Request: fold
Amino acid sequence: MKRLLSYLKPHIGVMVTATILVLLIIVVELYRPIIIGDAIDKYINGSYVQMMEQGDSSLTQSEMELLKNDSFRGILGAAGLYLFLLLSGFVLNALNNWILQKMGQNIIFRMREEVFSHIHNLSLSFFNVTPVGKLVTRVSNDTEAVNELFTTILVKLFKNSVKIVGYAVVMLSRNVRLALVSFALLPLVTVLTFFFRYMSRKAYQITRNKITELNTFLSEHISGMKLIQIFAREEAKYKEFETKSEELFRANWREVMTFAIFRPSIYMLSVIAMILVIGTGSASVLRGELSLGTLFIFISYISSFFEPIQELAEQFGTLQSSLASAEKIFSVLDEKPDIVNPVHPVKPEKLQGRIEFKHVWFAYEKEDYILKDISFVIEPGQKIAFVGATGAGKSSILNLIGRYFDIQRGEILIDGINIKDMEIETLRGAIGQVQQDVFIFTGDIKSNISLNNENISLEEVKQAAHIVNADTFIEKMPEGYDSPVTERGSTLSAGQRQLLSFARTLAYDPAILVLDEATANIDTETEALITSALAKLMEGRTTIMVAHRLSTIQHADKIIVMSKGRIKESGTHQELLKQGGMYKKLYDLQLAE
Reply:
């Protein structure tokens, strides 16, 4: 709660204004029944008693008419004041709601941006173990749940607490005996409220967890819908979804039933309290110990007295929900990135692309080393290829160059500078990475090449596309570079998506080019186009390639053969064939195939 309230600091003025407005609203609500009660005593009941006491003999017809007219004017005045208070209450409530909603939306906007920005700065290791649906829930559903806290709960908690005290003070000041009768059921209401708080808290927590589980399931299975349909698993997945949906239904139903029992219970107690007040108050009126107007005030108050108590209990439940959501949001914000910028980073003007690994040891988990004592040097402009069986550590080397993970031992140097001493933005800005699985965003062709970078003009986008042969299909599209692209580029072929990724990389003009199976799963005709594009992309750049098909890396200046996290052989294609080692066996095997 303390951490949540820190978001209110920039809005202290708004909260003070809202507090003043709430106090004015309470005064209006408390005073309205008093106006009617006093009017009953003074202008209705009072005039009647006065006429009865004076008798017809002592009052002339004109005096009686005058008395009636005075009473009628008094009633009209009270009605006018009551109407004024109604309108004032409406204006105050509308103004209060407006400024609170605006403040709440500003806070949630800031929180949502903070969470999304923080997620972007987290390391890849976090995303390897955290479902996407869970993060989507944090950014969307949970922030909206917290919105309730700032726009409704805090103010209503304050309002209802003050209102309960206000009712109690006015009732005690009017008639202590009748006030104590009104409060007779409060102990029972208190017990019921605490029980409701306990039950609603559990219900809210279960519901929030089930929503997260359902969102995670939906995110994963909608993304993998093609695979589900390929293996005809629609029915099985529907049953899984039905189970999770049913769990959420039961959680929501438990929440609904908690409210369904609590609200009528409080209403029943308020009716019992009303009966006690009417019975006791009527007897006092008949005995002349209590005025009719005061009885009306008590009846009005007792019908409203239990309402803020009920709202308080319900708001405690909603408060629990907001706090549970806030806790989940803060659990993401408290995640610390494994990769952080140095305190005093080295800032080279421009990286040339000399890469050196010096006795590098790396493990994703504790001592389970993927790379073991790896050392090599890549000179600027050289083209180096890594080959080896799956799990040999090839892709791990690519991840380490961009510092997506930190090594346990050794050093990685670029232009003689340890990458841990560089700003992450500088390092990754100098590296262009093309992967086997190309991610295409919803938008258009040009935004997928520039990634909405304002520093990359449309001309530069077109030039990059032309160099890598992507313009051959882009210009045939109905709207050219403005042609819409669906999520993940489903309307584009694998080769077209790959050419777009080449254009994207070239547009950012990196000094180092990393190719991770960039030509895998591409048909022969498209491969010729992509091979031509690759040759242009690699010109003048330090290039590191990982490939299973050895035919695609024969032109490399050096080929490094890896096995079980160690370098086994290195040399050019011809040199490795002459050695007759592991590379020769891999080459002969693929040649035979």
Notes: The chain has two domains: 2-333, 355-592. Residues 355-592 form a domain with the Rossmann fold fold (CATH 3.40.50.300).
